[in-house]
């Protein structure tokens, strides 16, 4: 989380979204139905399932999956969070709507039941919320105590449109395998000519 915060925090701040939502960016579980909390496919940011991605026009096709693009996924998630807050007028409901299917939200009737400052979590259907809150506490504690002995940063490479990963690798003298590892949104070897830029991880000790 520490590595991606410089990209995530400004986007949330611009949309007036609380830092309490930061941990969702790296959370890997999603409640598909009233009984089941599933692990999400690796590389997806913000618990963005295909339904949410479709609702916010986040591109998924044979070439790209922008749910796995840190910046585009964060921008889309911020829009989704704001839309859900407008709908529910409650940040707890908004949080749950980011980690649970809309059918679950409707079945639990949270728009009707969660109107006060005190919320009753009174059944196994809320396990996803409890699990996330536990994850949030652990993540924030780890972040506060984190000591990076090998500091790294991500930078957005804006000159790759239409280029192959191998060409970018040669230009930057970085292993193409490492580039692809940090850009799992890309399903081909060619960077698309749209708003998506690849992210490059570099060690500060190298420079």
Cross-sheet strand order for the largest sheet: 1-2
Shape: globular
Report the strand count: 4
Q: pLDDT below 50 for ≥5 consecutive residues: which ranges?
A: none
Relevant terms:
single chain; 207 residues; mainly alpha; two-stranded antiparallel ribbon; 9 helices; globular
Structure description:
This protein has 207 residues and is mainly alpha-helical. Helix content is 42%, strand content 9%. The chain has helices spanning 5-14, 50-55, 70-88, 91-99, 102-108, 110-113, 127-144, 165-172, 176-181, and strands spanning 29-31, 37-39, 152-157, 198-203. It has a two-stranded antiparallel sheet with strand order 1-2. α1 (5-14) runs parallel beside α3 and α3 (70-88) crosses α4. The longest helix has 19 residues, at 70-88. The radius of gyration is 18 Å and the shape is globular. The model has no long low-confidence stretch (mean pLDDT 87).
């Amino acid at each position: 989380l520490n590595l991606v915060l410089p990209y995530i925090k400004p986007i949330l701040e611009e949309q007036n979204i609380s830092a309490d939502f930061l941990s969702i960016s790296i959370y890997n579980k999603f409640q598909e139905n009233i009984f089941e909390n599933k692990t999400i496919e690796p590389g997806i940011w913000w618990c963005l399932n295909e339904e949410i991605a479709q609702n916010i026009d986040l591109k998924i096709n044979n070439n790209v999956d922008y749910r796995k693009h840190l910046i585009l996924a964060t921008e889309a998630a911020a829009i989704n969070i704001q839309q859900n807050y407008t709908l529910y007028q409650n940040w707890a409901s908004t949080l749950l709507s980011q980690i649970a299917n809309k059918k679950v939200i409707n079945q639990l009737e949270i728009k009707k039941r969660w109107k006060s400052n005190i919320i009753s979590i009174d059944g196994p259907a809320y396990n996803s919320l409890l699990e996330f809150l536990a994850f949030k506490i652990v993540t924030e504690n780890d972040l506060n105590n984190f000591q990076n002995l090998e500091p790294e940063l991500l930078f957005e490479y804006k000159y790759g449109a239409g280029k192959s990963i191998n060409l970018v690798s040669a230009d930057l003298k970085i292993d193409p395998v490492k580039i692809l590892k940090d850009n799992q949104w890309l399903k081909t070897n060619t960077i698309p000519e749209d708003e998506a830029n690849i992210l490059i991880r570099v060690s500060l000790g190298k420079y």
